[in-house]
Amino acid sequence: MQAIHAKNYDIVFTETGYEKLNSILKQKDYSILFVLVDSNTHENCLSQFLQNVITTLTIEIIEIEPGEEFKNLETCEGVWSALSELNADRQSLLINLGGGVVTDLGGFVACCFKRGIDFINIPTTLLAMVDASVGGKTGVDLGPLKNQIGVISNPQLVLVDPVFLETLPEEELRSGYAEMLKHGLIHSKSYWDDVTSSSYSAFKDLGDLIHKSILIKNEVVLEDPFEKGIRKSLNYGHTLGHAIESYFMESPSKTRLLHGEAIAIGMILANFISTQLTGLNAQEALDSAKAITKIYPFVQFDDSDIEAIITLLKYDKKNSHGSIYFVLLEDIGKVKLNQTVSNDLIFNAFDFYKNLWNK
Predict the structure, then answer these.
(1) pLDDT tens, 81-109?
(2) Which of 140, 283, 292, 343 is 20 to 30 Å from 50 by CA-CA measure?
(3) CATH code (residue 99)
């Protein structure tokens, strides 16, 4: 797969990607190489990665706990302390080897440590490959509130090696697939058809789809790196999806949802809302929603759940001047930004979601 040129860095793949990585390690005057992993990538991915690294630098491994609940400032403090104890300086390099939590948090750690050190992202999950590791967004959660603390700062390199996907459980692959479905909805009917006619577990087909998804995201980011306009389209399904994810994370009576599971629901809700506000064809919304329900399990919501989710919407990062803004569709591949939605319409969207499973 050909390298993708982003803003001041490249997104590279497999063998040629490792060649690019080793070239950077050789050319730049780094003092120490740090690799940030969680316990899962430490066990399943680290040795595979190190086999492909050629360097005389000292390599230090820093491990964090896996899971969204550890994507917080407390974990950052632990990593910063480890870097200091291991004599990191401003010429150190941090390689983030992991999923979205590792790349988001690791990038933020690197941006803040000694006012900024270089970092490289090596995503090991489908979600991180097509979304989290690309585009320069770094950050952590504030309690259950998603990505409230962070900065936009580009890595030196993103290296995508689909071999790491073979270490993932099915539900993690399915979670990442939601972002590819989103790319289809906001980009084009042809890519939507490509994604929905494939499977998140078909490794031989995923490489080309991953490359296309990254191209789609990168094109948007290049046009609008700081999310002043069209980059907001990448949040399709995320306004309600993030609120759902946060609610299920903080509610002791609920089973936590993976990011993609919540975003899948958010996209179905946004589809319905789009039929009511921005002219998305009702049959198109229904067909795409049914395609999503074939992949993701049903989640039960009662009125009190929905009210709590609506309350959480005020923390969405797209909000401005007290208004809650949604990304909606006029058609597949044609987005409409900065749309306000009534609470009654949100309740109706949840009814639409529930009725999909009753037909």
Answers:
(1) 999 999 999 999 999 999 999 999 999 99
(2) 140
(3) 3.40.50.1970
